TrEMBL record:
InterPro entries: Glutathione-S-Trfase_C-like, Glutathione-S-Trfase_C_sf, Glutathione_S-Trfase, Glutathione_S-Trfase_N, GST_C, Thioredoxin-like_sf. Residues 88-222 form the GST C-terminal domain. Gene3D superfamilies: 1.20.1050.10, Glutaredoxin. This is Glutathione S-transferase.
Amino acid sequence: MPPKLYYNAMSPRCRAVLMTAKALGLELELEEIHVYSKDHLDETLQRLNPKHTVPTLVDNDVVICECHAAVGYLVDKYGDEDNLYPKDQNERALVDQKLHFDAENLFPRVDAIIRSIVEENEKEISTDKISAITEAYKLVDAFLEDKTYIVGDSLTIADFCCVTTISTATIIIPISTEKYPNLSTWYRNFKNLEYYEKTNGDGLNKLDALVELKLGRPKTKELCD
Ligand SMILES: N[C@@H](CCC(=O)N[C@@H](CS)C(=O)NCC(=O)O)C(=O)O
């Protein structure tokens, strides 16, 4: 039986798992869950994961409710090679470092904006929230100085996690090529990956449409940057 993923394509955390599975050539059984509304609680998911969050990955008797743990698990268990999540201790530490950066620093900034719009129905985005995103762009741009990928010359799961978060931020604030040249090159290269649209682009477009609907007006992207 393939691993089962409780997911929603709008969620950047789920898109990172979808991207990892695709990169590994691994089929997942997918079960779509409503998110951004507590009106639709799924009983099975609630039992498996009392937080009722996605992604939740179930592989036989292993249940993983955190995206960054799930992507590492998939590479360790199903990867023919370890490039995406190196086994070498030093190399792995560098990947872990950026996974933690995404989980603890990057994602919360983006999640705060998305939740304020889609859950709390806020119609305006505070300048603090916008600055938090532009600061994050600046940081990631600095990480990418003289590098093709977040950790070095090889694509890793840290790129998958960061790109799904960053692409979600672009719904609100497009990446300025002049201000963040390294970040925009990295992001553009990602968009050329053959599995990018299916694993990230489609869900991102759905979230973009929801944000626009919730704001009740076209997003004024130019004013944000
Ligand atoms: N720390 C978790 C966060 C997961 C998370 O917040 N997922 C969101 C979607 S991006 C969710 O399930 N939201 C529904 C809810 O909180 O009710 C992870 O990295 O997997």
